Queue: 2 jobs
Job 1
Amino acid sequence: GQSLEQPSEVTAVEGAIVQINCTYQTSGFYGLSWYQQHDGGAPTFLSYNALDGLEETGRFSSFLSRSDSYGYLLLQELQMKDSASYFCAVRGSGGYNKLIFGAGTRLAVHP
Amino acid sequence: DGGITQSPKYLFRKEGQNVTLSCEQNLNHDAMYWYRQDPGQGLRLIYYSQIVNDFQKGDIAEGYSVSREKKESFPLTVTSAQKNPTAFYLCASTIGDRKRNEQFFGPGTRLTVL
């Protein structure tokens, strides 16, 4: 089967750096994605890693280690608007771009 | 503007009723998906469709049905056989770029069973 584990909650202060970890178990690996979801809203795509290493997009970076079945999302210069839930996801086996999502990490940013 | 629309935003259903949730996209995407999200939980896949007139069951398809008669539309019916339908329902689509895994989501429909 396929499963992903990530912490349920993370708390940080404005301006700080926070790392959200994700470990996964898959029968075949096709890449790790990250999505952001504000309360009551729709998930939005943040990043995608298919190969080992760091991908940077502005204040957000995502890292992947395929040998460790592990990745993380790094958020820098935290802002209040970054308070949201963050989901890691892997492509499911079989179906066309089918995603399996983790349970999500709720990030609370405080002043 | 291109995007995905879902309607209604809020839906109330009496027990024993079937209800249909609408999902429309004008992104010219081939694949479409339905997810269910329960409070504090991740997204679970209900059904997905790669092309018109074809769809597959996801992880929690029991009590749900779909159709894909047009590329732009992928409605979801929550039947009376779904015993616990109260949840947030999200529709998504993708162009199928295997390099990015990027899915685009609609604003969601919050279904409550009275």
Job 2
Amino acid sequence: DAKTTQPNSMESNEEEPVHLPCNHSTISGTDYIHWYRQLPSQGPEYVIHGLTSNVNNRMASLAIAEDRKSSTLILHRATLRDAAVYYCILSSQGAQKLVFGQGTRLTINP
Amino acid sequence: NAGVTQTPKFQVLKTGQSMTLQCAQDMNHEYMSWYRQDPGMGLRLIHYSVGAGITDQGEVPNGYNVSRSTTEDFPLRLLSAAPSQTSVYFCASRRDRGHYGYTFGSGTRLTVV
């Protein structure tokens, strides 16, 4: 499984945008980029995924570099509820499993 | 829909005891997985299944057994509990067609003394 690299922690302020980076220089052509988040004392929650084009949903946006070796999860207006560990995961289409890394712990200041 | 249901939510075992962690989903998902999460760590895959009757090992399978007799259920058995198996266990499922995210249960917190 191709690996991803994320900062251990990030901090932002409430109501400001947050950009969470992820490097995946060994990504293959069939790997999708998935983002999950884990709120305190809860199971992980699917956020968004993409292959080549930028993606938007109600929770976040995913910006994928043209060479696909990095991506950025964008929370447009952070709230205190967005404080969580965010995981960037590569997964091939039809993947039968997810392999988690350490993720980025996001702290939101009021 | 209930989603992914894990029972029990909390359990304390003595070393050497055995038990089964239950996982059930009502979404007709083919793929199911078990993860463990130690304090301050990411999730590690224990076992996974791509359909009834089919299971495979993940990163940390030792000390655990699984079976998948129905699409809905994917129990995880601890054969002889050890303190090193103290962890939070998560079950997850997803559809097998197309590309969708996994749905996770709320976890079982297991302490082995």
